[in-house]
Structure formats: C-alpha cells, structure tokens
Write a structure and sequence with these properties.
By secondary structure, the chain is an alpha+beta fold. The protein is built from four helices and six strands, in the order ααβββαβαββ. The chain has one domain (2-137): Gcn5-related N-acetyltransferase (GNAT) (Aminopeptidase), CATH 3.40.630. The protein has helices at 2-11, 18-26, 74-88, 103-111; strands at residues 30-39, 42-54, 57-65, 93-99, 115-124, 129-137. It has a six-stranded mixed beta sheet with strand order 1-2-3-4-6-5, with helices on both faces.
Length: 157
Amino acid sequence: MDEIIRIERESYPSPWSENLFRSEITSPISSFLVGREVQGEKRSVVGYIVFWKVDDEIHLHNIAVRRDMRKKGIASRLLSEAIDRSRREGAQRISLEVRFSNLAAQRMYAKFGFAVKGIRRGYYTDTKEDALIMWADLGTSSGEGPQVKGQGERKDG
C-alpha cells in the first residue's frame, strides 16, 4: 500500500487517501489491478488501475504510473488488462473522466476507442478544472470494440 500511496501522491494534485484505496479494494463492484517490476528477488509497484463494473458498464476511477516508469506503455497494459477482464465478464461500455488539460491521457484513451461525450464543469475540486467525459464501446470478446495497442500515458484525475 505504501508504494501505491507514493505513486498516487506524485501523480495527482489531490491524491486519494489510503482509506479510500482500502475501501476500493474491499468494494464488491471495484477492481484493482497492480503492475509490478521484478528485479531478482525485489518486486516493486510501477502502476495501478481502479475501475468499477456495474451491470454491463465499466467506469475507470484511477490509473497512475510511477514517475520513473512513465512513457513505457504501463498505463496502456493496465487499461488493456482491465478491458479484457471486463469484456470476459460481459461489459459492453467503459467510461471515465479526465482533466481537460491532460492531453497525453486523452491521446492514450483515443487509441483505445474512447471519444469525448460530454463535459463536467468544475469537476476537479482542487483546481475547479473541467473534466471531459469519455466513453468507449467494448463490443464483445470476439474482438469488436476498441483495439488495444499497449502504448500510452496515464489518466490524471
């Protein structure tokens, strides 16, 4: 948990608390995936993704990658795994909010088939920045929906 909190704090102006992460881990609708780097006997967290599955929809809540590991496709691999698992469980759509200023994340999401469907004005309470609402259709596990490419950035929000 300490590594996740460290990544969260270096990634966001208003980071999630440890209690919030713990409640996500125990929530029946929440999924939490962690990317790890293994060097010999040492294992360290390099990134994570938190998403909810409600009926046939997924909502991405949080994704972050350790600063020194960014731009290596880790966020894309985490998102790809989340999408693959969600499809296998019958998910048809996925949504998220992303800061209006986070162009790198928006480019990554576009590679996964996400499109802007709306704006949440003043969504981020720390800066009053707007959030773009992005959606993608997942299609079926037979290959419809966004094509996962495995390259990209992280979500900020």
